Amino acid sequence: MAGGSVGFSSEKYKDADASYTYVTIAPNVAYYFMNDFAFGLSVNFSSTSFDGNSTSSTFLGPYLRYYVTNPIFVAVGANFGLDDGAGTAFGASVGYSWFLNSAVAIEPQLFFNSYNNDGDINDSNEFGLSIGVQAFLGRTSGE
């Protein structure tokens, strides 16, 4: 499986009276190692703007996807920041694979991530919606 998603989320910091809005682009690849289970790797590029300031971050990490019932899946994963002070993120999502044909699907997902930034400053939780497109390489109709 190869593809990616574009996400939008809002975030509220635990120790601050501020909210942020994020836009994320996340390409990914995965391999189905058994029926309904895939192990993958994702790269997340995110950009944040708040009060005239903007920052960007890059995360890399593994994830596991399981189809509870075709076409509904759940996924869990971890992401490790590649930028100074980016920290780590752990998350879960639930999504739907809407197949356009036997190999390409549009996938809306609701997700939750918990960020642990280096130094415990601005640790946060994030809830959002992403829309992705996946190509299921080698898939035949009805799988």
Question: How are the secondary structure elements laid out?
Answer:
Layout (H helix, E strand, L loop, with lengths): L1 E12 L5 E16 L2 E14 L2 E17 L2 E10 L6 E9 L1 E2 L4 E13 L7 E12 L8
Antiparallel strand pairs: 1-2, 1-9, 2-3, 3-4, 4-5, 5-6, 6-8, 7-8, 8-9
Explain this structure to me?
The chain is mainly beta. The protein has one domain: Porin (Beta Barrel), CATH 2.40.160. Strands 1-2-3-4-5-6-8-9 form an eight-stranded antiparallel barrel. A hairpin with a 5-residue loop joins strand 1 and strand 2.
In short:
This protein has 143 residues and is mainly beta.
Order of helices and strands: EEEEEEEEE
Total count of domains: 1
Question: In percent terms, what proportion of residues is strand?
Answer: over 45%
Give a quick account of the main beta sheet: strands, pairing sense, barrel closure: 8 strands, antiparallel, barrel
**What's the CATH topology name?**
Porin
Which structural class best describes the helix and strand composition? mainly beta
Please give the CATH architecture: Beta Barrel
Regions with little confidence, pLDDT below 50 for 5+ residues: none
Query: Can you tell me the overall shape?
Result: elongated
Sheet with most strands: strand arrangement: 1-2-3-4-5-6-8-9
Top-tier CATH class: Mainly Beta
Distance between the first and last residues' Cα = 13 Å
Number of helices: 0
What's the alpha carbon Rg, rounded to whole Å?
Answer: 16 Å
Total strands: the figure is 9
- The helical percent reads under 10%
Mean pLDDT, nearest integer? 87
